[in-house]
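Internal tracking record. Fields below are filled automatically when a chain is submitted to the structure queue. Please do not edit lines marked as system-generated. If the sequence contains nonstandard residues, flag them in the REMARKS field before resubmitting.
Queue: standard
Priority: normal
Entity type: single polypeptide chain
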Amino acid sequence: MNFKFKAALVAALSLAPFTASAFDGPELYDGEQALYEKAQEEGLIVSFDTGPTWANWSSQFKNFKARYPGVEMVYNDLGSAATVVALDKSRNRPQADTAYYFAGSALDAVAKDVVAPFEPVNFDKLPDELREKDGKWFTVHKLNIAFLVNKKLVKETPESWADLLKSEYKNSIVYLDPRSTGQGQVVVFGAAFGNDGDMDNIQPGIDYLARLHNSGNVLRTVGTTPYAQFLKGEIPIWIGYENDGLKAKYKDGMGDDIDVVIPKEASAAAPYAISMVKNGPNPSSAKLWLNYIMTDEGQATFAEGYVRPSVPGVKLSPEVADKMPDAPQIHPIDIVKATALKADIDTGWSKAVLGD
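SYSTEM-GENERATED OUTPUT FOLLOWS
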């Protein structure tokens, strides 16, 4: 446990009240008040890898604390893979109550037996590919592939995977390397879905990217998210995540100089999941927290941070809905199948694109 995290934990424990109180308004779900009273006896929730600047976790913390003032919140920002390592190392004396990560890391956590089954509010509404059958992990939001287009550098915005092959986009396109990045892998799935492929046939995605490179339209592939370079005007078209484009448009000053396009044929969505930690110190608080972020209220809060909710049919405010209109052509990837296909993508992409 690092010093800053330990200090925050000690401070939170010292602030935790010891008497239960009711929250204002009706219950969000049956049994919410009773669960809150149990959680307040613990007085604390320790949430791993929920960095406040990512996916609007900062607003989730604020809203949770406002509704449940008797439960203090402590969090860190470790990264998905490091979170699983931390859970494994502390399995005899768990520090965390919940863990958030890219769903591929959730599979690792299940394999290491460091997470517990729990079915939160709205669990049954999730498609099978967005949850572990017993609730050892479940998706809280999705990140989907989009074209992020700098309109100062591109005359006509591409609307489809087919458009990207046009000669007018010579030396214009950047995307992440699928061999070393999760986002790059999702790009392959998006390209596959947009070219008559599916989770059982990703070759059309690999073949498409080979054609894109052969056309001369790819400027480069990169190993880390090129958000800063995109903001500086160094990238005409980035095949990346929608939320980065919306953040650039509405928060970081690009405004009308950027178009964020969901390709019209199809796109892929990457699931981000959360789990209850096995033998965590505050199980009632963990359940209260996990239930809250899966309520319609919690799901709408994710959307305010420009990530799409995992629960179908969540009502969004008109302002948020206007920024993220319905896109039925977005298909979530099956993370179990995606993980099994990683080696095939690595070798297939290398051979088709690089000639390795």
